[in-house]
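By convention, each integer encodes one residue's backbone shape. The lines below illustrate.
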Amino acid sequence: MQQVEHPTAETNQQQEFYKLYGTYRDWIAAVTAEKTARDSNRRLSPKDHEKIVSVHSSFNDSLREIFNRWGTAITPADTMQLLNNFIPIADKPHYRKKMETSIKGVRTELLAELALENMGFKVVRATTEQDKRGIDYLITDSQGKQTAVDIKSSRFKANKTNDRNAKYYNDGTIAICPFSPETLESIHTVLPADPYGQMLEPSKEMLENLHNSGIVDKHEYIRIMNELEEQMEDMRKRNNNPASRGKLVHV
């Protein structure tokens, strides 16, 4: 009888990453088109620009699916290496930097989503059309106030986007950088193994940024911060209780 080989987790992971190949190839073509236009000091036509935005959005959606499935088992560097196995870009600085930015951006969005849920917000992911306008999530607080939020991976990008929105659009969308580079580095895998416990401290950091950006008022800020502090204290007590050993969680 022929022995049946069962796929390992690593094999399944590689197979799922292979599904990225199509959008990854399109992503490389889009980055090439952007670079060619920039190097020749030429503006992309509105049609070409819209197509490129759509390609980036599709690739990010594919990355999101991979991260939701494997994010607790892989690092950002692992992601880069797996993609590089398909089409090498590690030795091409422009493409490598662009890919690192894409990985960081999608990861930051997913971590922000976890933090928002920890804070008790109702979180709705933006539609495709809203995404094209720079909206990542529609979040609603306990008072029923809804805000369109654009998650950025750096404070510089958030400030630049808010300045541009205020000048040209004024549609109420607020860009925010939820976490510092140090916070992102402290979570070694793409997503935390404990999406609740490991995200309590980052949730407090994001709450500060939501308050500073005007998304959360003082009353809501105090209420949510108190709840997060209570949850962290409760977690510390459970971790220090010998009877709860074996159920340790990160704080």
Summary: The chain has a mean pLDDT of 90. Residues 9-244 form one domain. The chain has one domain: 9-244. The CA atoms of residues 174 and 203 lie 18 Å apart.
